[in-house]
Structure formats: structure tokens, C-alpha cells
Amino acid sequence: MTTDTTDSTGTTPVLRSGASTANPPAAGAIARRRLRRSLLHLVLAVVAALYLSPLLYMLVTSLKTRGEAGATEPRWIPDPVTLDAYRHVLGSTDSPVMQWFLNSLLAASAHALLVLATAAPAAYALARMDFRGRGVVFTAVVATLFVPPVILLVPNFLIVNELSWVDSLPAVVVPAAASAFGVFFLRQFFVTLPAELEEAAEIDGCNRWQIFVRVVLPLSRPALATLGLLAFLANWNDFLWPLYVLLSPESLTLPAGLANFQGANNIRYDLLMAGAVIAGVPVLLLYLVAQRWVIEGVSRSGLKG
After folding, report:
1. What percent of the chain stands above pLDDT 90?
2. What is the mean pLDDT of residues 221-229?
3. Would you say residue 39 lies in a domain?
4. Which candidate, 108, 120, 129, 109, places its Cα nearest to that of 218?
5. CB burial string 209-230: b at 16+ within 10 A, e below
6. Where in the sequence is the domain holding 265, given as residue range(s)?
7. Is 27 within the bounds of a domain?
8. Residues 6+ away with beta carbon under 8 Å from 201
9. Cross-strand pairs, 14
10. Burial class (CB within 10 angstroms; exposed 0-12, middle 13-18, buried 19+) of 187
11. 66: which residues sit within 8 A by CB, 6+ positions away?
């Protein structure tokens, strides 16, 4: 509803609006934004389904009977649902899957802790300590990231053999503990921390080591959690190196053990998928627990993937 009124001089008509009405352009913009958001969510849902479908089918196959798992026409819903594959895998005497699982868990955990213990002090020195040749050292560390890991197989094996570590867990824990990526990653995070906090701690009487332990490390939990998770995953999923240095069946880690298990059960898809689920579920759970720190650590370090 509108009314005609006059201005202060009483001569010029002025059009005033009574009840408020919706602005068509504004409403159209809101509708377009909602449509774009809905389309984006739809695309993300499709992409997520594409990524998750192999994992879901792996889980479904592990719950099938032997005959249904090997059928030429795959089915998404097992009939009947059975845990026989898991009983067979976990109870096998020829393939000690649980021993492989414990070996992988111990090796990956020890490797992650060792990577943090070596990378954090080196990264802090390169980020905060001023010494001659710091730039050259950092360049050399980054340059090693471009060396293909397969080139180091023979030298690492010779060193491990000289230390009598062949067929033992230290052989898969120690060689890759000096992580150039870990130094680079933490260094990128440390340079983002306010230097004023360290200066205040130094005024309070802390030395360099106390500043590193009491100030820098507590502020770096997201980056440390991210690097620890990445190191854990790298060791957990390592396949080639354990095949070189672990010889007896009881000493194998899970990826190497499952490769042997696959060779002995190349037509038992239910058993193979059960072993894959056992190897994959702990990693997924670990990431779900630590994803908040991973996202924050990656964003703060300036790395993008």
C-alpha cells in the first residue's frame, strides 16, 4: 500500500511505502546462493560415495560366505551375514595375523615417536636459532626430499645388516626416523609462532632448551599430532622395506604378512577382504580421532594438498 504526500513546501508529491514488501532481486540472489550450495553438497556427496564405495564393498565382502564372495555377480548385501572370514583369519596358525598386527602397531608407534624426537629439535634450530650455514643446511634437508626412497634400499640394508638388526623390528623403525619431511613440516610451523612469547620466556630466565620444551612444544601440539600421524601411517603402510629385512613369519608386519597371506589364499576373497579390514580400520579410527589437529596443523604450517 502506498500514499501520496507532499514535502515540506507543500508542492512536491512524495511516494511513501506503507507495508514492507520483499525485494525481488535480493530474494533471487538468496535463491541462487541456496541452489549453488545444494549443487555443491550434491557434488561432494557423489565424490565421497566414489571414494567410500571400495571401502564399503571391502567390508561387505568380508562378511560374506566363501561362495558368495567369489560369485561372478557381486552383491552389496551379504546373505547371510557371517564372521567366518574373521574367525579364520584371526585363528590361523599358518598366518599369525594378530602377531603381524601387533608388530605393525609397535613398529609404527615407535617410529612416529622417534620421528618427533629427531625432527622437532632440528626444525626448531632451523627456525629460530641464528647460526652460520643455516640456509645451506635447510636447503640440503629439503633437497633430500627429491631423492627416490628406492635408491636407499641397498645402503640401508647394508647398515641394518652390520648392526645385526635383520629380522627384527628395529630394522623397520630406525632407518627412516631421520625424516627430512618432518624437519621441513615442523620448521614451517615454528616460524609462524610469535617470537614475543619466546622473548618473554627468556626475560623470565629460561634458557633455549627450556623455551623449546615449555613454550614451543605445547603451542605446537597440532603440528606434532599431524606429523606423528603421518609418520605412523607411513610406517604402517610400508610394504617394500619390511619384505627386505623381515624374514621369519613371526617378525612380519601387517602389509608384508598380508601379501604372503594373499599368495596362500588367492581365491578366498572373503579372507583377503577380512585381512584388509583389519589393516584399515585402526588407521581410519586414528584419523577420525586426530583429524582436528591434522587440519589445524596443516593449515598453520602453510602446506596445501
Report:
1. 20
2. 88
3. no
4. 120
5. eebbeebbeebbebbbbbbbbb
6. 94-301
7. no
8. 210, 211, 214, 215
9. 5
10. buried
11. 84, 85, 268, 270
- CATH classification at residue 185: 1.10.3720.10
Q: How many distinct structural domains can be found in the chain? A: 1
Residue 171: per-residue pLDDT: 93
pLDDT in tens, 228-278: 988 998 999 888 899 889 988 888 898 888 877 776 656 777 888 888 888
Contact yes or no for 218/242 (Cβ under 8 A): no
| End-to-end Cα distance, the chain | 57
Does residue 272 or residue 161 have the better pLDDT? Answer: 161
Buried b (16+ CB within 10 A) or exposed e, 23-60: eeeeeeeeeeeeeeeeeeeeeeeeeeeeeeeeeeebbb
Round the average pLDDT of the chain to a whole number and report it: 81
Does residue 35 belong to any structural domain of this protein? no
Question: Cell triple for residue 173?
Answer: 623403525
Alpha-carbon distance of 221 to 73, in angstroms, equals 49
Q: What are the E-state strand segments in the chain? A: 2-6, 13-17
The answer to whether the beta carbons of residues 117 and 178 sit under 8 Å apart is: no
Global confidence as pTM = 0.76
Q: Mutual orientation of helices 97-128 and 269-301 as an angle, nearest 10°?
A: 10
Among 182, 177, 179, 213, smallest CA distance to 198 is for 213
Q: What confidence tier does 1 reach under pLDDT thresholds 50, 70, 90?
A: very low
| Confidence grade of residue 106 (pLDDT, cut at 50, 70, 90) | very high
